[in-house]
Design a protein that fits this description.
alpha/beta, 318 residues, 7-stranded parallel beta sheet, elongated, homodimer, Arc Repressor Mutant, subunit A, 47% helix, Rossmann fold, transcription regulation (chains A, B), DNA-binding
DNA sequence: CCTCCGCATGAATATTTATTCACGCTTGAT
DNA sequence: ATCAAGCGTGAATAAATATTCATGCGGAGG
């Protein structure tokens, strides 16, 4: 009987606080109890399920998918971009916009940004960044060499340079091909002062933006001809590769696939990547599902930006 | 496009705050925005309807009825007691319990409590009060004379005395019949030192507990024989009386019915009652609907305690 | 091209809310 | 009956949240 009365009191307090918008001290005056008691009653109201807060996802946002992925993979942040269709153009564009927003919103003075060149989503990000005056990034570091052929080299360079310009930082280029013919030539390249200077900066990166590559042939033709041979790719696949970040291949569990190929890549290693405080992975599209899942399982990235279709697939993985 | 992104942000913040229970400063750290911005986003989340708080009434509580009555009559507080059946016994008991709780919860040191004797609900209240040690009321004042016959006088006296005892106050009795034969005899009675002492204390009352009487014959037989004649009651009815508080009759609009009868009552006037900071009216039952409505319309009481059936009827009045 | 206005931001601060603390009541065991 | 443990309370205080203020950006209109 007293229980009912107590519930009534709790309900009344909750009503005054949440619906009428009164402050606790007002309520305490009206009901003649102390403010401390009002606070306690409100806490009980939540505990007893008398007040319930529900969050309605506005159209175009996918908080449920985001939390599903966060929880499933134990990752700290997931951004699911809205996207009309499930094709690469639409997906990459949506992800790029979201990535641009994330960069704009979270860039801080003195940040050192790393970017893996050669990602369609990062390209899209570039196109959607609003020039930022507010803060001044220290520098933008290219995390992966350019592609073998000189014209392609330019692309990678441009991505880094443009980004640096947009966020008021110095570009720090990695003037090298991304894949060398042998571990020896890689070692020699890395001893070049310009290359070494950049590699030495890797440990200073505060935020890295990286694309996630899939094993299946990509539109960018990254691997074909310019980088790895078909045979090499087949070997990687045989060893369990599901995708790559900065051309560092990893398995379904996100374990790096060490070996000769690993030693021929000029760019940040996955170990170095782990040491970066915030790694933002951007990727989407049907081909990428397994690649993304691997990166998530291996905790290779801290933040995932993807599209709603890919997010759906990720959340449904067994 | 940016709108979607903003909504996503708002939703995410709302989620972290309301569902995950993070504090704003934590959120601001994770999302890398200032705590002020988090606060602002949360406010927007409510404004945009992204977070909704709903209050679920626990069974046995009737917040909707309460607010309906509060709003309809512009009264500051309504307590609707749970009650299984719509008969006087059940109703009076439920109201008594609720009144007792209210008294216990809101009694403050030094309060001067007024009680109109001869109310079945107040009798019930007495039986349900837990002795209070915490605070010490200054005194309990009897607001209405006892009924004519001596044995009944005792009842009124006892109610006041028992209450005073329960809340550690001094009883201040009104040693007089509640209705005299004529205005003159009333004036003489009131000049009696004991009676006058009590009447003089009326203005010091901080909280008054009053029953609300109905016109139709009551179980207590208050009016018949002991107080007013059938003819007098009929006259009152003809003049529009719908009920009484402390035997002060009033109309459907809560206007006091002045006149000879009014001058023959020994007890607090409705004018004096208006001056009391907090007047708590207790009443319920089918016969009382119109009486309560009148008291509410005339703002004769500040707090109404009733049962859910009566509350329903009150809320449905045109 | 420049200037002014409105808007958004974060730091500082004011306000509000939650927690701690000390105390008194109740309860249940001895 | 007496005492200790546990609960609930309000006052004081700590913590969290909202608001103010000053500043800088972006766009409209000279």
């Amino acid at each position: 009987m007293s229980r009912t009365n107590e519930l009534r009191m709790i309900t009344r307090v909750a009503q005054m606080y949440h619906l009428e918008g009164l402050k606790q001290s007002d309520i305490s005056e009206v009901l003649r109890i102390s403010q401390a008691s009002v606070s306690r009653l409100l806490k009980r109201a939540e505990a007893e399920g008398i007040v319930r807060v529900s969050i309605v996802a506005p159209s175009g946002t996918y908080p449920d998918l985001e939390s599903a992925i966060r929880e499933k993979f134990g990752i700290s942040e997931v951004i699911v971009a809205d996207c009309r269709e499930d094709n690469d153009d639409a997906v990459f564009s949506a992800i790029g916009v979201a990535a641009a927003h994330l960069l704009e919103q979270t860039l801080e003075d003195g940040d050192v940004i790393g970017v893996s060149s050669w990602s369609a989503t990062l390209q899209q990000m570039l196109d959607n960044i609003h020039p930022i005056k507010r803060v001044r990034a220290e520098r933008v570091i290219q995390l992966l060499g350019g592609i073998g052929v000189p014209s392609a080299q330019i692309h990678a360079t441009q991505l880094t340079t443009r980004l640096a310009h947009l966020i008021n930082g110095e570009p720090q280029l990695l003037p090298a091909p991304c894949v060398t013919g042998s571990p020896e030539s890689k070692r020699i390249l890395v001893s070049d002062p310009h290359v070494k200077a950049t590699v030495d900066q890797f440990k200073r990166v505060t935020t890295a933006f990286v694309g996630i590559g899939a094993m299946a042939p990509s539109q960018n033709l990254i691997y074909s001809g310019n980088t790895f041979t078909q045979a090499e790719l087949e070997e990687l696949a045989r060893r369990g590769a599901v995708g790559d970040i900065c051309l560092r291949f990893y398995t379904a569990d996100g374990e790096p696939l060490a070996g000769e190929i690993y030693e021929r890549v000029v760019g940040m290693t996955l170990e170095e990547l782990q040491a970066v405080p915030r790694v933002i992975g951007t990727a989407g599209g049907k081909r990428k599902t397994a690649s993304i899942a691997g990166a998530l399982r291996g905790k290779l990235i801290d933040v995932l930006i993807t599209d709603r279709f890919t997010a759906e697939r990720l959340s449904e993985l067994t």
